[in-house]
Design brief:
627 residues; alpha/beta; Rossmann fold; 5-stranded mixed beta sheet; 52% helix
Length: 627
């Protein structure tokens, strides 16, 4: 081989080798082609359930990120054509459309779609497993490499629910007039067991007008069970607007066996949920793409559930407590509480807080007013008390001065003059002549003796007025008895005295207070009341000492007397100081009754000395008189 030929050959082979290397590298990084899932619906493209099923399947396929999947949908409309024209045309269309895209999984929705897929499997998708959703398998046997979800209608379950909600039903009118005779036969077979409970009537009217006329003539006490109905003119099945027109014409409740009917006016039914069935078919398709064999996935029944329209339950007066526990009540209008529960709770909380605040403010205001009223009352009471104290102090000063003047006058006009006269008599006796036994001198001595005794008696009476010595020696009862006797003699009035109980063991200061109270009451009865009959009683009952002074004097106005003199004030102050109470009963011209009750405390008070000296010091009137 010449060098020139060799160089030419190398130049020719190098581009080819470079292109082959690039192609190999591109194949090495090229991703796997998407898998193909084909769904075949039986019915028109605008059939409502088809879009629901497709949405559910697409959602499941899109959620699986392990393998890219392309989803395609075709519609088998054999009910519009005679013979095998529609089947042959769809098979040819699929063959041409997907000749470069092998189909990995076929989803056949409805029985005609499954029959089409099985008839054309060998030529269209020989290696593809089938996911089926329908009412009945062909010949009742499971075909090879087929799995799926059975959507057998719950005709008997729906009628059982309707009869439970309407126990007095006598007749049931069934509307099941579709193009698929297999479904029609399965409906009759499922309802045969009710023929002994109610009268079953099947309405086979082909036209909509005839159907509406037949429904409008249904008698009371009946129900309508709507499965499906075929209209030759429109070429559609189970249209929701047809159901709505039928419900409007029916004088009795209408129940349906398809989820799509809920909301068109039917009361409800035991139905399969279309979206749930589509989701399950999509999950089975994903398992098959992942390599699982169809025989390993059992054919299962779609889950059934009672679904009812809340508005129709209210329209027909159906008690919701009679519904099954798993019933799904739709279109229910929520109550105000259910719709605005958070808002109501917030508003209620705010109102409650505001109410509590207002209540607190009102309570505080009322409390403040009560306090202010109490303060004003206390201020008024204090003013009155202050005025009374000042008045009392003035009166006490005046009484003190009057008492001093009375004592001075008694000493000057009585005792002093008597002592001067006694002194002059003694002087004359000393200057007289004769023996001591002379009758004249004996008469003078006798006169001087009597004179001295009268002076002593006057001094004794004055001393007794200031403080009775019998009170400390003999006790309260004896002192009061002696005082009453002295008053009787001195003022020539009838004074009676009675006592009950032992008064020797009471405190001296208390004895002085009770003696002064009685003394003041008797003095007032004689001096101001002009009484001629005075009754004094003192008694001890349990831990209390009671004193009562009654006279037949001219009486007085109690309220007026408190503001004009010291007698009642002194009595009340003494009783209150001893922890007692005073009651005065008097009317002008009807005499006076004074009642005093004080607790008798037999114990000696701390810090004091028993005896007359302490009693004398504790008595303000005595102290005033001693100044």
């Amino acid at each position: 081989m010449s060098p020139a030929y060799a160089l030419a050959l190398i130049a020719t082979l190098m581009p080819a080798a470079a292109f082959a290397h690039a192609a190999g590298a591109e194949n090495a990084v090229k991703p796997a082609p998407p898998r193909v899932v084909l769904t075949i619906h039986w019915g028109p493209e605008d059939y409502p359930a088809s879009s629901v099923v497709d949405a559910a399947i697409r959602g499941v396929l899109a959620s699986d990120g392990t393998v890219p999947i392309d989803y395609f949908v075709e519609h088998f409309e054999s009910y519009l054509f005679d013979g095998t024209d529609a089947s042959d045309a769809l098979a040819s269309y699929i063959h041409q459309k997907y000749r470069r895209r092998p189909i990995d999984v076929v989803i056949a929705v409805s029985d005609p779609s499954l029959r089409f897929a099985l008839e054309h499997r060998a030529e269209l998708f020989p290696d593809a497993p089938i996911v089926y959703s329908g009412f009945a398998l062909p010949s009742g046997k499971r075909p090879e490499r087929v799995t799926g979800v059975m959507r057998s209608g719950a005709y008997g379950e729906t009628l059982e629910l309707a009869l439970a909600l309407h126990p007095s039903t006598q007749r049931v009118f069934v509307i099941s007039n579709g193009r698929d005779q297999q479904i029609n036969d399965s409906v009759r077979a499922a309802l045969t067991r009710f023929s002994q409970r109610v009268q079953l009537t099947y309405i086979d009217e082909p036209s909509m007008s005839g159907l509406l006329a037949a429904v409008s003539a249904i008698p009371a006490g009946s129900l309508v069970l709507y499965v499906w109905h075929w209209l030759e003119s429109s070429g559609s099945v189970q249209a929701v607007d047809q159901v709505a027109r039928l419900v409007a014409a029916s004088p009795v409740p209408v129940y349906g066996t398809n989820e799509r009917f809920i909301g068109s006016g039917v009361v409800g039914g035991v139905v399969r949920q279309t979206y749930e069935s589509g989701t399950r078919m999509g999950q089975m398709a994903v398992q098959l793409i992942a390599g699982r064999r169809p025989e390993e996935i059992p054919i299962e029944n779609a889950r059934l559930r009672p679904i009812l329209d809340w508005n129709q339950l209210r329209r027909w007066g159906i008690d919701q407590s009679a519904l099954p526990g798993d019933a799904d009540v739709r279109f229910r209008v929520p109550t105000v509480w259910e719709s605005y529960r958070p808002h109501i709770i917030v508003v209620a909380a705010l109102l409650s807080a505001q109410l509590l605040l207002i209540t607190g403010l009102v309570t505080q205001r009322a409390r403040r007013r009560r306090v202010e009223t109490a303060l004003r009352t206390s201020e008024g009471t204090l003013r009155v008390s202050y005025k009374r104290i000042r008045d009392l102090a003035t009166r006490l000063i005046n009484v003190q001065e009057k008492t001093r003047a009375d004592i001075a006058r008694d000493l000057h006009d009585d005792v002093c003059q008597e002592l001067v006269a006694l002194s002059l008599g003694i002087r004359r006796l000393r200057g007289s002549r004769g023996g001591i036994q002379e009758p004249r001198l004996q008469g003078s001595l006798t006169a001087l003796e009597e004179w001295a005794l009268s002076v002593a008696d006057a001094v004794r009476q004055l001393s007794h007025e200031l403080h009775p010595q019998t009170l400390g020696l003999l006790g309260l009862g004896s002192a009061l008895k002696a005082y009453c006797s002295e008053v009787r003699k001195r003022h020539d009035v009838a004074v009676t005295f009675v006592s009950y109980g032992d008064f020797k063991q009471i405190r001296p200061d208390l004895a002085v207070s009770l003696f002064r109270i009685t003394q003041e009451a008797v003095r007032n009865a004689i001096t101001h009341g002009a009484g001629r009959q005075i009754a004094v009683s003192v008694s001890r009952s349990g831990r209390d000492i009671e004193i009562m002074v009654t006279d037949d004097g001219k009486g007085f106005d109690v309220a007026t007397a408190r503001g004009s003199g010291l007698g009642l004030i002194t009595i009340e102050e003494r009783a209150h100081a001893a922890g007692g109470v005073v009651r005065v009963s008097s009317q002008p011209g009807e005499g006076t009754t004074l009642y005093v009750r004080v607790p008798a405390d037999d114990t000696q008070p701390d810090g004091g000395q028993a005896g007359d000296e302490q009693a004398f010091d504790s008595d303000p009137a005595l102290r005033a008189a001693s100044i």
